[in-house]
Every structure is written in C-alpha cells, then in structure tokens.
Structures
1.
Amino acid sequence: MRKLTTPFIALSAAMLLAAPWIINAAPYESTMGLVQKVFYFHFPSAILFLVSSVICGIHSFRFLFLKRQSADAWALSAAELGLLFGALTLVTGPLWARKAWGVWWVWDPRLTSSLLLFLIFAAYLMLRQYGGPGSDRLAAGMALFGMLNVPFIYVSVNVWRTLHPMTSVVPTLPTDMGIPLWFCFTAFTMLFIALLTLRATLEHQRARVEALYLAEDEG
Amino acid sequence: MGAFFRVAWHVMRKDMTVEIRSREILFTTVLFAVSVVLIFSFAIVREGRAPDDVAAGILWVAISFAGTLAMGRTFERERYNDTLRALILAPADRPAIYMGKLLGLLLLMALVEIILLPLVGLLFSAPIFAYPIMLSMLLAAGTLGFAAVGTLFAAMLVRVRSRDTLLPVLLYPITIPVMIAGVRGTAALFQAAPDEPMARFWIGLLVFWDAIFVTLALWTFEPVMTE
C-alpha cells in the first residue's frame, strides 16, 4: 500500500492540475453561469466528507470493540481529512448558494447537518488534542455517535422540503457536464486515499517511536 | 435482567440520597435554568411583548443548558470523593451502572422541567395545558435522548482535565437532532393553530433517536470506562 502512495499522489496532482482546463471546457449552465462550475469541486468534497466520517466511525468501532490498536490511527486520519474536506464543502457551498438563492447561507436541513458534522469532527479532534491520556478511546466513542449523523444528513434532503438540489440530480446530468464531474471526483478520491494512507502510516510510525522510547526508558 | 435493573435502581437511589441531603444540583440547576430564560427574555422581548413562537426554543435551550450543568455535576461528585473507581470495581454490569446514572439524571431534569415549563408558559404566554399528554411525551423523549448521550460523555470525561469545557463542545453537536425534533415538535403545539400530526411525527422521530442513542450508549459505556 505504501509503495502505491507516491504514484497515487502524482496522478491525482496531475489530474487536479488538469481539472481547470476540463472544467473550463464544460458547457455553461444556463441559469447559474460561471458559478455552476464550483459544483465540480463541491460535489466530490461533500461526498468524501461523508465518506471520511463513515471510515472514522468504522475504525473507531474496530478500535473500541475489537481492540485493534492500529485502527485508531486510521480513525484519526479520517477525522483530519473529514475536517479538511468538510471545510472545502462549506466554503464552496455558500459560493454557489449566493448565486442560486441570493444569500450565503440558509438554515436548510442539509446545510445545517453538514455544518453539524463539521463541528463533530472538530470536537473529535479537540478531544484528542486536549483530552490527555486515554482520550483515544473516548474519541472513538464520540466518533460512533458522530457517524449516526450521516444517514440523518443523507435522508434529510429527501424527507424534508429543502432548497438543496436533490440527490438524484447527479445521474441525470448531461454527458459533457458529467465527464468533468466524474474526472474531478476520481482525482479527489485518489487524493483522499493517498492522504489517508500517508497520514495513517505517519501515525503508526509515531506510535512505534513512542513505544520504543518507553521500552528504552524501562530498559 | 432482574439483576440489571436492581443494580441500576441501587445506583440511582444512592445518587438520589446524596442529592436529597444536599439538594445542591437541583437548586443550582433550577436557578441556572431560570437565569437562562431571563437572559432570553432580555434578548428577545420588544416593547413589553415577546414575539410568537419563541417559547419552544427558549424552553429547550434552557433544558439543554441546565441539563449540561446537572450531568457535569453528578460525575464531578464521584470524582471529588474518588468513588468512581469503587463504582466501576463493583461486581455489577457496567451498563447497569450507566443506566442508574441515567435514571438519576432523568429524575433531576424532570424536576427542573416541572418548574421550568410553567415559568415559560407564564412569561411567554405559551399554551402549555392545550395538549398535556403530547407535550409531556415530547419533553420525556427529548430529555431521554439528550441525557442518554450526556451521561455517557460526562462519564467518559471524568478523568479528562478540561472536562468542563469539553462536555458541551462534544455534547451539543451530537444531540442537535434531538434538539431539532424537540423544538419543532413543541413549536407545533405552541403555535396559534396547533399542528397535531406534525407534533406526532416529531415524537416518533424522537423515540427512534432515543432507541439508537440509548442502545449505543449502553454498548459503548463498557469499553470506554475500562482503564
């Protein structure tokens, strides 16, 4: 896995560099104009935002109940990436909203719950930062509750009346808009996987160094 | 199963006995909740009248603030007297200990709500007697969901240094779904033309969340509390 990260990062970097040209070549959307193009970044980051919370939750479960020590590093990395992609989502969203609805923010269920999930990630990382010894287990417990919010977010858009475009918009996109979208989606996903692996490896190595220091102190 | 509830009952009775002798948490929490309502009235009231539809929001904000205070204090007492370890070492199911703590907190919060609800009804002219059963169901289900997560988090944070600041930071984002359902459901009952089906929908959603939160908390308490 570690051998794959360098080509992965190189490829996703190349794809993200090429993305502006591909997005530029996509046709203008009739009502939204130029602002619609933010969607090509907004959609992948929003999906990965949700994905990282699921990864964080699953690994927290493995850490807490199955006692897999290495799972904690994966959960932490996923949470950090969740914060990053959440920030991207929350920055690109209002840019689109300003044009579509005339305001930067509305208290719509999906927007509210995305902000909520972002806050949960922030609280999770804060607990790990300031929690002191044993906070990894506490944070894992918190992450399990945080993951519950994901279906809440996904369902909210379809159950309640909402301004946010329905989740069924994406499959119905015209092809010349669909290609740049899925291109960006692939690039972002590869970047996500590469960063996740790198960060988790770093965390594993940090844990090993710590264990070695402890062993040296005792010996 | 009988042993489970017996342990829960004993833990709750212990907490209640301590509380009845000092009445510390109850008095401070009630006073705090009343102050929250007062602060809101200053923020919201214009020309001697509160706008319509604010009573539900104020009620739930006061409940959640006061609840955070109460759950922090119940475990602070265990930490201060160094009795948490004794509680954990007791030959009993950990989830039963959690359940006892939760029941004690629920009882306290119910007492606070009994004082808070008429106060909000009086000050913001909310029709609290129009749908007494549905309103109490909303309050009960909402408080349960909030307290279920709160008890777990407060227990987790007992050994953490900055627990007082971390508890609300962790608790509020997680319990927002419960708060939304509580506020929207109560607002549906308080509005000029009460919307019964809407309130019933939110009660159903609250019960659903309660089931998930309580199950997950019971399940998580054991591995999280292991030293």
2.
Amino acid sequence: MRRFSLLSLLREATNSHRGWGSQWSVAQPKARYAALIVGGGGHGLATAYYLAKEHGVRDVAVLERGWLGGGNTGRNTTIIRSNYLQEESGALYEHALKMWQSLSQELNYNVMYSPRGVMMLAHSVHDVQSLKRHIYANRLSGIDNEWLTPAEAKAFCPPLNISSDLRYPVMGAALQRRGGTARHDAVAWGYARAAEAMGVDIIENCEVTGFRRGLDGAVEGVETSKGFIRAARVGVVAAGHTSVVLRQAGLRMPLESFPLQALVSEPVKPVFPCVVMSNAVHAYISQSDKGELVIGAGTDQYVSYSQQGGLHITTHTLEAICELFPQFSRMRMLRNWGGIVDVTPDRSPIIGKTPVPGLFVNCGWGTGGFKATPGSGHVFAHTIATGEPHPINAPFSLDRFRTGRLIDEAAAAAVAH
Amino acid sequence: MLLLTCPYCGPRAEIEFRYGGEAHVARPAEPDALSDAAWSEFLFVRTNPKGIHAERWNHAHGCQRWFNVLRDSVTDRIVRSYRIGEPRPDPTPSGARS
C-alpha cells in the first residue's frame, strides 16, 4: 500500500496517476486463522482493522459473500450523530462520533467526514417534549444537542418551510452540530486498505455455509464456498443476514430483517447545508458532495430479503420532503434502492458473545448502523481479542433479551427507526 | 406494494392491511411455569427465514379480520393466504394459488 501524502500526490500528478496500484490485494483463504470476521461491510472491516491495530491480532481474514461494502455500507444515507436517548446508546454512538473526527488521518484515507450538523424536526407538542428530553439527557452525558426555534431552524437550513399552513408545521428542532455525513464507500475501502496493510486477508466472493464445532461445542472453523477455514474465534457481522448465518450454528436470534429504502436525485449545485431528519413525517435528507440530494425513506412493514421495497413507502417520504422543502418538488430522482436491515425488539444493537464458545456477534443495528461503524468495530475487536466485552458494549449483550435489561430506543419517539 | 388476498374479501392492495409478524407463535399454555429463556424465545426470538415465511396480516381498512399468509421473503411472491386456526399449508408450488 502506498501512503497518501502531499509528496506522493505531487509525484503521481506528474505521472498521470499510473503508480498508485491497487489499494488492497486479493487474497485466497489460508487453512487456518487466529480469527475470522464473517461480513465485509464497514463494521466487519473496522473490526478486523482494530484487531490488528489495537490487539496485535493480525492473522485475521474477512470473509465477504459478495463484494466489499456492497450491502448496507453502500446503501445507507451516511448520517452520523450521537444524540440517542439512553445512556448506554449515547456512550456507544459518542465513542464512534469521536473516532469519526480523526478517522481520515487514522486510516490515511479521506472518508470525507463532514460535521455539517444534524437537525431533527418537531411537528407536534409530543415531538417538542420528546426532543427536549433528548437534549437534556444528552447534555447530562456531555453530548452536544441544542434546541432551535422555527426561525432559528430556518436560519440554519434556509430551504426549510416553516410556514404555519403546513399539514405538520415545524414547531422547533434539535440540532447536533457535530453530527453530519461521511462517504460510505470510502469508509469500507479505507478500513480494508489499512487492515490489509497490517496483514489482514480480505476475501470476497466467499460465502459461509456452515460452522464446524468441537466436542465441547466451541467453534473450530467455518465451511465456506472456498472450503473449510479453521479458526478458534469467529465474529459474525452480517447485518440483515445475521439470522441466516447464525442458524447454521444452531442459534435463533431476536431479529427481523426488513427492507429500508433510500433514493438520490439528479445532482444540483449546493442547495442544502446540513442534514435534516423528521421522524414524524418520515423524511431524511442531505446533499452529497457530488450534488445529489440523498433521501432516506422508511422500512416496509413485512420481513423481506428482497433488497427492494414498496413504492408507496418512497412516495410517502417524497410527499413529506416536498411539503417541507417546496423547491424540490420538480427535482428528478435518479435511483432508488433497498437494503436489508436487521431490527431487534428494543431497536438497540447486539454486540458480544453468543452461547457458542468462540462465536461472537455484532448485529441488530436496524436502520442506523453506519454512524457507529468505527466505534462498533473498536469495541467488537476488543470483545473478540479478549473474549469479554468492552465496558461500552457490555450492556448490548445478546443475553439482555433473557435478563430483561433492554436498552429501549424504540419507545423513544424521536429516534429514527 | 404487495397484492394480498384476504380470505374473506379477496385480493386487495397492501395499504389496506397491517402486518402482524410471524404466524404460529403460540402463547405459552402455562406462563407461570416458563423459564426466562423460554419467555425470551416467545417474546423476542423470531425465525426470520430467507425463504418461505408464515406471517399474520390484519385487513385493517377492510373487514378487520386476521389471517395468515405464506410468502417467499426473497422474491416477495405470495404463496397463499389461509384463515387463522388452519394449519400451516404445504408451501410447495402445487399448493400455490397466486
């Protein structure tokens, strides 16, 4: 891997950029590894990176069924924020947000983290109370979040329609200034490149088809489409397919997989300075650096792996967007797509051990996992390397569905699920 | 949008219906005797299959009755609808209706 620096950029600029080479090399699986990561999305690649970097575990392979970042990592709307209600969630997402701030330097790869501010709109008295509750809870744990009046919200985001004749008028907004966006593909590529440089094998087109377990029940390795690979520690980071992968190890999970849709418009000049989310009317919008409006819609109501959702779901979101931002009513949409999100009963992720010794799981991020990518990989690497959870992910155990210590972000109305 | 067949009203658009989760999750006969793990299984754990899924639907903006549907979760193809209380049908194509 060639490092990016001013000197290397200048040198390549005079060389028609012919000398960069590939960012990571294609690996064939070895017979044995110290640890395997199943799933080559952002979370899985980050896990491999921190295993190598922080824990010295470099004998690691990342197994990806398709191509890197081809799942939800490449399908989300790239929103980053940490203003969650519960203390445990705040700690987890804030851990990630702090890592985003220096991630480009850390990886020597521009992930285009842009803290342009995430503004969440309130459209009813209940929304106002709920968002203010979030603001106070966040401030108690040292997370920035502030209340804006409709006029202040309009000043922060000029395209916003705050007139009182809307079906659901804007009654105020909660603003997290450190929130923003990042380039999702670059996150996957940056982690893959940096992990591979430390000795991690990145193996694409390699589907896990089974788990081999010893007499004591512990994991001995995985069967894949490229043959058996031995490893005493296996971390499954398979997002929407977690139920399918773990069923091969005899586990049934508290998860349901739903299609979540997003769409982008034709590219236009910079018109939208921040991220705006409205959970009440289901509208999530920002503008990419390419100029496309990036719009998030809701999930379909039924379990599906089809990676496409109903058109009425996107229609519903576009109606809300056009009401809040009337100048977009004649924009043309270029593409829409779906990703399969794994949703837990309490809308919080599961990061930790499974009942199978040596088998770990990181899943259940539901509709909002991208923002947590660095923090999730960091604490999950700690869990795999030491066999015990990091203090930040200890509350997010699979066991909480038996003990009842749920981390309920579902009842918190202002959370985007 | 799915085209669901209500066993009482016939084929209707999905927006008339409300999804009710996995079907055939039986409420425990003796709740007092249940272990925490068994409660967890009943309350939270779901099959979430990649393939044929048995699920409950409610015709909320119609007859308001509940019924079950077999649907392929990969293609979203609906195999068949059947009434609550009927056993889960054989999902093979010979039993398919639409």
